[in-house]
Amino acid sequence: MIKDITGRQAIILMAIVMCATKFFVLPSNLLTTGHQTVIYVMLLFFVVEFLLLLVMVRVSMLHPDKTFYELLCDSVGVVVAKIVYVLFFVFFIFKLCINIIETYTFFLDTLYDELSSVLYLLPIILLAFYMTYIGLRSIGRSAELLWVFVFLGLAVALIASIPNADFGYMLPIFDGEVDNAISVLSSNSLWFGDYLVYLFFFGKIKFQKNYFTKFAIVCGIVMAVIVLFMAVVYCIFPYTMGMIHYGVSDITHITAHITNIGNLDWLNTTLWTFASIIQTVIFAYCAERCLSAVFNIKYKYISSSISLLILTAVLFILNFRLTTLIAFVQSPVRFLLPILLFVALNIITVHFICRSKQKKQNRMRGIIYD
Amino acid sequence: MTKKEIRKGYLAILIVALIILLPIFIALPQQAQDRTLILAFGIDKMQEQYEVSAQIMVPESSQSGYKEKREVKSSVGKTIDQAIASLQLNEGKDIGVAHANILIINEQAIGEDINSVLDYFIRNRDIGYLTIATTPNSAKEMLEISANSSSDKDSLLRLISYNNENIFGTDSTLNKLLFGYYSPAQTSIISRLQLSSSSSQSSSQASTQNSTNEQSGSGESQSSSGESSSGQQSSQPMTAGNSQSSGSEQSSGSSGEQSSQSSKQILNDGSIVVLKSGKVVVTLDPLQYRGFHWLMPTKSSSFIELNNINNEYFKDATVVLDIINSKESIEYEITSDNIPIIKFNTELEYSISSIQQSEYDADIYAESMNDSTDVISKALQNLIDSEVQGAINLSKQYQIDILNIYDKFHQKYGKKFDKIVQFNEGDYLRDVEVYVNVKVKENKI
Question: Do both B274 and B300 map to the same domain?
Fold first, then answer.
């Protein structure tokens, strides 16, 4: 099998995808009612997510030549695999909607007075189609070029904002009701689970030395940064979270206002665009892979076109409105991620059981296992 | 179709799109043609109606380059929205508020709850972070004076911010105001601007023209502030007793710099308006506010006058100190009797800025400097202690928690403090005690 991306590119892609949309409206959605307790609950959630991700990495390293779909078919059969991939397709279409509408509204509010949704969508769809068609390799290369700018923007935002945050507002720990925090987190579950993208890298990564360790360190840092970012936003606006629209913009905006150094948020907004674009392209790629697997579509441009047409239709149904999107995402649709997590967990467990049985049989036959 | 063909096709589409779009974007009209660019808002109340004034920018090109001409337009409505809609109608253009960064509210317009005035500005996503100031005078007139001044468009913002950043650390922004409004303490503070005729005021008072002055200007502004604030007390909705007014009469030494202008000037004397649940409860003059400021993390360098200093060299001398450095720690504790205690420890480093006394002997200058550290240190200790205690007493009197005492105790003690608040029926400031420990050091370099 042709290896599309290097281990380094896979790590960079995961780092960008995991944090790109978590810094826009999510802080406000979570912290307005969840307060600081939600940050502690999120931290625990991330620990579980991190461990699950490491299991995925280990499985991908054990089967470097198999895609996740092939593993699924081997473990649970073709029919179940197709059902899982349909769920994944729906999941990625929703993730794309979140990404595109959030970014569109972000631009509309921070940079433009008027911005046509069609004019905004057109280049994004064209880019997504092109990148999806060309394949994971070009996405990985783009991410390798752009990651410095993305994380530079984030670093500037954090470094400039931390002095304005009073971290005393993180106390007392678990001050609010934990069940309320869990409820808030589950209402916004579709903003999480970005790490499931890794399943679509299976069989396409050219593993390098110390890949697992590097992966664990980088993803651990990214998750820690997300938690730190949430804490910074909350500690700057503990009582006015409901009025915060875009975390990444607002924290730098207020810093610029205090320090009188101009519109720092514009610089940050521009740099953060790269992360958003990479995430859009990756989700489009995953959606295309799902459609291709479910319907056995041979030609990429067909599966890519169909998935992007479905995305466009959903975006127009949602009318590009952030409030409609939030209401939609917080509807029962939010249970999609827990279902997928459950499925992924079970499949991995089944796979390991099958594998250990196979190992046992091989040992009994006296064959040295690879 | 091969990948190479698709790549070529895509490139062709991109080039065609650029060729089509470029002339469209070039031909777009200037935004200034269909937008009124607002720099600052002013709100006054006329009987039962709001008068919203907007300082707008009218860009003009001239032979020497680009000129920023400013005008003030106003409109009246029953609500802020109505007045602004009317303003748009009168102008025949939409309003562009992305550059608006100042809001001046007449104290009459605040009414029972400032939130009713601010709601439009909070909900409008195009407006960035506003710096807010109140005024007992006309907000419209204030904007007009600012617009007619020769200084640049940001001079009014600097006038408010200079005081905020360099003297008293009053963060007078919309965000900070709402932070206080929605906090359990429900207490917010806003800077206060006033109009004064230059013929009756010394030029040491900050004006739009001199707002960019350097550090020396800040000291003058502070010391002159007491004079004007005490003079303005009768016009304020509710004014705390000026127990330390003696400090406000300190001369800045700039009386010889009388301004020749007879027009009105915008004055920031450092006084602040304190709101509880959005309603003005008290106006504090700079010296009263300084008592709170000692306990604030934003504390910055400032000048302090010590009066009636006496020892073998000084007779009823007034010594002006420049605070160079300060390190402070504040501990919040609850005793076994459920008494909230604030322990304030500070280490100050000062240098003597000037000494004023009637019979000053220049020969003993050096000797007096070396031997007077103790008496000055003690006077400084007493001053800080009395100012801090005065601030806490004011807090108790008006139930204003400027220092966010609630948050500090709640963060440390959680439910234990909540019980005290419940027991005191919300008046948690009633039993608060403060202990002040000041260490001072003179910088003689």
Answer: no
